[in-house]
Specification:
Blueprint lengths: L1 E5 L5 E6 L5 E8 L13 H8 L9 H10 L3 E6 L4 E8 L3 H14 L4 H19 L2 H14 L12 H6 L2 H11 L5 E7 L3 H12 L19 E6 L5 E9 L7 H12 L5 H9 L3 E10 L4 E9 L4 H18 L3 H18 L3 H15 L5 H9 L3 H11 L6 E6 L8
Length: 412
């Protein structure tokens, strides 16, 4: 059973009741993320997410963590380009207590000064860790090169200088503008009754004062280009980015199947050619990212620096052949089945369901329709995949970045 409701103040609720399970995942999703930030705010969505856990008028940071642990519950959060999500997973008999804790940290965090200074150090170390993780560094560089220094090009962590400069007043102002009821979705998935879930939402979120919300505009550009960052590491990392369809496109399912065939698994063309046949990379894969206005299709490989150019050439040759010859019927059928099974497997995971239903409501203000999704995948044809290739693999608009101990940047 799936039920949705909007509270009087504008908070949207979506409930996926999954009887027969023993747990429930509950999440609070907000339409705030790196892509909406100004230059001065760059990194604030992520820092705010960290600070939400650092104390309320009735609980210290430790008491929040200890209370979840006492229930045997899990709690976490993450920040994306255009969304922040706070979530908890608990056994069904402790759902009400876990939701009360989640609501407290989301609604009542007061950002104690001593916790702010401590957490700045934590986030600065996270930035350092990102700098020491060349795969992440490479993919961040790809986004920045393709989309520029704003919008979807922003690194979620932000620059260290900004993190050091954030004040309590900055967090309160940003939360006050972006964490509005109309910009908030509460999502439940698991063994919880609709009545209990709605009652909990009314109890903790129903009295929040309604306030007008104006969605920020995002700077959206696509710039063909190249970038290189020299780093004294053993492996070279390279990534290619191509513009692809936005999340509202009818081609999204076709792009997913196309990705499976090209670089989504061990039987994919890129894996078989670049790794298995040529031995040029240990890791090579592709994936699409769909946003509100645009999208990016990414191909990544980790390679021996001496073989970096050969690996790039091999990747491009696979893509060119893909464009020229299209997909074989057996590839198409295999990819379509994988897309179906991925959707089916996610139906059995409460965390996945919480996020799928929550994001659909947050982004599109509609209830996710599993049957419709399966019908869309089943109706795909080879011609649809050819259209997806045409829309997502235009080499003339590609972005190429590399990170590693290379003598010079790899060129298209």
């Amino acid at each position: 059973m799936v039920q949705s409701k909007t509270l009087k103040n504008g908070v949207r609720i979506i409930i996926k009741q999954m009887e027969g399970l023993l747990s429930v995942t509950m999440g609070v999703l907000v339409g705030a993320g790196a892509a909406y930030e100004t230059d001065k705010e760059d990194g604030i969505s992520h820092f705010l997410e960290h600070m939400q856990f650092k104390g309320t008028p009735t609980r210290t940071s430790f008491e929040i963590s200890d209370a979840f642990d006492a229930l045997g519950a899990q709690v976490n959060a993450f920040t994306g380009k255009d969304m922040t999500c706070y979530y908890a997973k608990a056994t069904s008999d402790h759902a009400a207590e876990a939701f009360a804790l989640l609501a407290d940290l989301f609604l009542n965090s007061n950002f104690p000064a001593e916790e702010m200074e401590r957490e700045k150090g934590v986030v600065l170390e996270e930035i350092n860790m990102d700098e020491d993780t060349p795969e992440d560094l490479c993919l961040d560089l790809l986004s920045r090169t393709a989309f520029g220094n704003r919008g979807y090009g922003r690194n979620i962590l932000g620059p260290a200088a900004n993190v050091k400069a954030f004040t309590r007043e900055d967090l309160i102002a940003y939360r006050g503008e972006c964490y509005r009821p109309e910009n908030t979705v509460i999502s439940f998935a698991g063994n919880i009754s609709v009545e209990e879930a709605l009652s909990l939402c009314e109890q903790y979120f129903g009295n929040i004062e309604s306030a007008p919300f104006t969605k920020r505009e995002k700077a959206v550009v696509w710039t063909k280009g190249q970038a290189f960052k020299k780093k004294p590491i053993e492996q070279a990392h390279l990534a290619l980015g191509f513009p692809t369809v936005c999340r509202g496109s009818e081609l999204c399912s076709a792009v997913q199947v196309m990705n499976t065939i090209l670089g989504g698994g061990m039987s994919s063309r890129l894996f078989q050619r670049v790794r298995e046949e040529l031995g040029l990379a240990y890791s090579v894969y592709s994936y699409p990212s769909h946003y509100e206005e645009t999208g990016m299709f990414t191909v990544y490989a980790g390679v021996n620096p001496q073989k970096a150019t050969a690996a790039k050439d091999a990747i491009l040759s696979v893509i060119e052949e893909f464009q020229k010859s299209g997909v074989k019927k057996e590839e198409f059928l295999r990819g379509r089945e994988q897309a179906k099974s991925g959707s089916i497997f996610s139906q059995e995971n409460t965390s996945s369901q919480m996020l799928i239903y929550g994001k659909q409501m947050l982004y599109k203000n509609e209830v996710y329709d599993f049957e419709k999704r399966m019908a869309e995948i089943s109706a795909l044809t080879v011609e649809n995949i050819s259209e997806a290739i045409s829309e997502s693999l235009d080499i003339s608009r590609a972005v190429l970045v590399s990170v590693g101990n290379l003598k010079e940047e790899i060129k298209l």
